[in-house]
Amino acid sequence: MAELINIDLGGRSRRLRVDTLVTLRWLALLGQAIALVVTFFGLRFSLPLGPCLLVIAASAGLNIGLRLRFGRIERVEDVPAALMLAYDILQLTALLYLTGGIENPFSVLYLAPIMISAVSLSGRITLILTLLMVGAVSALTFRHYPLPWFPGEQLQLPLIYDTGIWVAIVLGAAFIAIYASRVAVEARKLADALAATELVIAREQHLTQLDGLAAAAAHELGTPLTTITLIVKDLQKQLPTSDPLEEDLTLLAQETGRCRAILGKLASLGGDAGNILDEMSLSLLIEEVAGPHRDFGVHISIVEDGQGPEPACLRNPGILYGLGNLIENAIDFAVSEVRIVAQWNGARVRIVIEDNGPGFSPDVVGRVGEPYVTTKNDRRAKTEEGAGLGLGLFIAKTLLERSGAIVKTENRVPPATGAVVTILWERAAFERGAKRLPASGTAAKPGPNSGRALKTNPGHFHGPRKRERFVDSLLFCRVLSWKWFKRGD
Question: Total domain count for the chain?
Answer without folding.
Answer: 3
